[in-house]
Amino acid sequence: xxxxxxxxxxxxxxxxxxxxxxxxxxxxxxxxxxxxxxxxxxxxxxxxxxxxxxxxxxxxxxxxxxxxxxxxxxxxxxxxxxxxxxxxxxxxxxxxxxxxxxxxxxxxxxxxxxxxxxxxxxxxxxxxxxxxxxxxxxxxxxxxxxxxxxxxxxxxxxxxxxxxxxxxxxxxxxxxxxxxxxxxxxxxxxxxxxxxxxxxxxxxxxxxxxxxxxxxxxxxxxxxxxxxxxxxxxxxxxxxxxxxxxxxxxxxxxxxxxxxxxxxxxxxxxxxxxxxxxxxxxxxxxxxxxxxxxxxxxxxxxxxxxxxxxxxxxxxxxxxxxxxxxxxxxxxxxxxxxxxxxxxxxxxxxxxxxxxxxxxxxxxxxxxxxxxxxxxxxxxxxxxxxxxxxxxxxxxx
Length: 397
Ligand code: NAD
Ligand code: MG
Hints:
Distance between the termini: 56 Å
Bound molecules: nicotinamide-adenine-dinucleotide, magnesium ion
């Protein structure tokens, strides 16, 4: 039987890589629901290729335009695709009990409610949208427990850790530490004093991975690794002091687990998100992902190093937020989203991103969130505070 798949954020980098893997296995997977924000050109070509039953565009105008485009096609299957819009519809579309797999690949806080809706529906949820877990932490994980959903990590590091954990019983007892690797991004070796002059274009040119703009900037500040540290802590229920960040510029080892007997297990592969995506789609089976296998004769050298906290203050802020707990991760995530958008819009300096996050974290009282509502309120408020900071000059050019 074909597995029925929905993709939240199908037009993005992860969404497109997912469809690339699915297209290789028409006997195994059937695309039922596709969603995006406003990119109708890519959505239209995905509709033509995959013929979903339903499409949700978060932006209502884009939904209207897409309907017109689809109705102009001769094919009945295309004109019969149901097109809706709005954020409630995103959540409704992935709650459908006919679905087997939901890929959560929206970027940022916008993915929280639809991702949680997929979890609540008890589906197999392939999580790329790390911000959703960072924001809501224990509330998210409790929802996974309650609903019986199967949460599988698409983020390459977390997927690697998941693979290295395999059947480990009592992880807290037998794991010495989780080694979370990160490339260090495009500015790992740039003279520190030049960091404040880097442009959005330079920040988005990652040496190893081809990704959406927001995560590319996060990789350049290493906030991505900070968010991943928090993601790993919640997903694998590991305290902060059991997770160590290791800089590995070649992005071949995607993370490791070190056990108390001295064994270290690593998961390796070429840096291509289709590998973790295929792993999650087929788990516990394996399928072809279209990724070239590693050629060890061509691997020059693999290097490992400590992170440079002076160069990457965002990493320190994320570590601090994880240690503080409560709404602190939600606050830094919100401030980071606002700051990255302002940097991409040419409003603040690259080094201003950390300044905005630090100021925002310092200004908001941290509480223990009791409900999703607390998380949403914190996120909204932290975004306002961060925007105000920028208006008042923090991080400005
Ligand atoms: P992207 O910007 O390429 O794509 C984002 C997708 O989300 C698009 O389909 C877009 O239409 C949709 N979207 C954006 N805003 C929306 C909104 N307000 N409402 C509804 N939909 C919206 O991003 P990406 O690089 O594919 O990353 C997606 C997620 O996966 C992020 O959380 C990122 O951290 C994570 N991730 C990405 C990679 C990667 O290699 N790209 C690796 C690991 C994790
Ligand atoms: Mg990652």
